[in-house]
Structure formats: structure tokens, C-alpha cells
Amino acid sequence: MKNTTRQISAVKNIALVAHDHCKQDLINWCKTNRTLLASHYLYATGTTGEMISKETALKITALLSGPMGGDQQLGGLIAEKQIDMLIFFWDPMNAVPHDPDVKALMRIATVWNIPIAMNEASANFLISSSLFDQTVNIRIPDYAGYLKERLT
């Protein structure tokens, strides 16, 4: 498939996700970076979003809980180019029953070439990047072009 360019605006749509053993770490990270995050649109899977919102007063669009379809909802938003960045504090030491959904989320985020942070260190790198508050062009699959070629 050919590629095209997508423009990510300076105000980002950021998804926040955390496995159970990592939720408090993500909440603490959000508290530390509250000022930077407040100027962006934030989305989160259900439980994580409710906890972050309660403890930080950040405005969060909460989706379903991850195991109940929230991971798939986020994947759909990524494929629709409505999520620009994913911060996912995952627990590599504990298996989760919805592991196939988690892998699908990681796959779709990679396919659509959005920045992904998988832990506190990578999240710090992303949020401190000079690109964080800038308009950025990224390379994505040219799915519309693909469909046009297939249908003609």
C-alpha cells in the first residue's frame, strides 16, 4: 500500500491507558504533567479515565473499560485518525484476559504511525519533545487511495 501524509495539530488528541498494576503510576504521571496535558484533548479507557479525572481534575473523554471493549474503541478512533498519541502504561509481568485486544490496539497504533509511550520514561520523552505542542506531519497508509484504485 502506498503512503500519504496526515497532519497532527498542535493540540493533540491523546489516549491514556493503564493496566491495573500501572494505574497509579499513570495517575501520578498525569499529576506531574497536568499543565501540559490540560491544553490537549484526553481520552481514556473507562476505569483509568475515571481515576485520572477524579485525581487530577483533567477533562477526560472516558470510553468503555479496556476488557469491555475500550481497547477496541480506541483502536477504532486511531484508525479514524481521531487519536494522535497513545500513552499506555502496560504491565508486562501480568497476563490480562483481554491480551488479544491489547495487541490489536498496539498493532493499529503502529499501522497508523502514531507516537506510542509504553512506560513512564517513554511518556516523558514524548511529552518533553519539541514536537509535542507543534503541528506535525506523519506518514500513514493511503487507504483512500487504495480504495480508489481497487474500485476503478
TrEMBL record:
The EC number(s) given in the record are 4.2.3.3
Q: What UniProt keywords are attached to this protein's entry? A: Lyase
All copies of domain MGS-like, residue ranges? 6-152
Q: What class of enzyme is it?
A: lyase
Signal peptide positions (record): none
For this chain, one GO molecular function annotation is:
methylglyoxal synthase activity
Q: Which PROSITE patterns match?
A: METHYLGLYOXAL_SYNTH (PS01335), MGS (PS51855)
Question: Could you name the active-site residues?
Answer: 71 (proton donor/acceptor)
Task: Please list the residues that bind substrate.
Answer: 19, 23, 45-48, 65-66, 98
What is catalysed by this protein?
dihydroxyacetone phosphate = methylglyoxal + phosphate
Q: Which Pfam families match?
A: MGS
Organism domain of life: Bacteria
Q: Which family does it belong to?
A: Belongs to the methylglyoxal synthase family.
PANTHER family, alphabetically?
Answer: METHYLGLYOXAL SYNTHASE (PTHR30492)
What is the protein's known function? Catalyzes the formation of methylglyoxal from dihydroxyacetone phosphate.
What NCBIfam families does this protein map onto?
MGSA, PRK05234.1
| The protein's name | Methylglyoxal synthase
Query: What is the species listed in this Swiss-Prot or TrEMBL entry?
Result: Seminibacterium arietis
